[in-house]
Automatic annotation (TrEMBL):
Gene3D superfamilies: Medium-chain alcohol dehydrogenases, catalytic domain, NAD(P)-binding Rossmann-like Domain. Residues 34-160 form the Alcohol dehydrogenase-like N-terminal domain. One of its GO terms (cellular component) is cytosol. This is Alcohol dehydrogenase. Its cofactor is Zn(2+). It comes from Pisum sativum (Garden pea). The lineage of its organism: Eukaryota, Viridiplantae, Streptophyta, Embryophyta, Tracheophyta.
Amino acid sequence: MSRAKEVITCKAAICWGVGKAVTVEDIQVEPPKATEVRVKMLCSSVCHTDISSLQGFPHNQFPLALGHEGIGVVESVGDEITNLKEGDLIIPTHMGECEECENCVSGKTNLCLTHPLRVNGLMPDNTSRLSVRGQTLYHVLSCTTWSEYVVVDVNYLLKVNPSINLAHASFISCGFSTGYGACWKEAVVETGSTVAVFGLGAVGLGAISAAKMMGASKIIGVDKNEMKKEKGEAFGMTHFINTNVSDKSASDLVKELTGMGVDYCIECTGVASMFTEYVEATKMGTGKTIAVGIGTELVVPFGLVAIQFGRTLKGSVFGGIKAKSDLSIIAHKCQKQEFPLEELFTHEVPLVDINKAFELLKQLDCVKVVIKM
């Protein structure tokens, strides 16, 4: 019997405030409104932004229903939905793409003005379909994925091929695609150019994958974890720098491999104190650094001279990836197994053991933790 018009009670990972423990509790998920879809989540994964959300970023609204990476199946749709139906496999996206607003048609940015990045923890109508013990639940961005069910506005969903690997689809819903897009859409790496990628988690490995696809001649991975060398090479890295085994600065180590520095630097760490190093690792006059990492320090100490010598520092959300036109291309490549995404899948936990995921992330061999619903 269909539950399309009923409130569903299900399990979800909840945090009640900064510094509070994450608990798995029964929550209530309302039916979708006219332009919304209720989704049964099948598989989720952990992104660094999920950790930041526990510390009050990008908003400080609690109680918080966690998670933003994942893939699920349509359980029911609102009355005005015509492009999705029960049983469709979808990826929730934290950005929308109307294809008609000034930003969308400009070709200059992926930040849609009609369906913007949601940073208040609520639906586009500024309400929530989730509650716990009678209290409104907020989500990290456009939805929550560490929940058995969730309601998402249709403009923040991408339908994908049912043959796609569920865990791999979860990885491309945010992290991997962010790095991939940073090289593909933001840096627009040229054939024969040189690229340095700082931080070899899922985002950094996505950047390496795109740099290889774009034809970069030298792809330098920079990390303090020696175990990331093998991962980087699997995605196309040509050189590896372990910053823990040298007293030299990271930018000097990059210049030792390139002479004058790289053409492009992709910053995937969010370490504020390192931003001058990221920029100075690029060539004077033409070097370009794309900042995609987000840490807990939102004020960046920065050496102005690094920019005054003609280099460029560009901020990026989701690596410049558009939620429909670009992410669908990445999803097709994922479905065709064009990326070695199995290299990212290092650990798995059930939703009820979500706190184990945070401990696993501290292990040197951990890249992505998959959450089975």
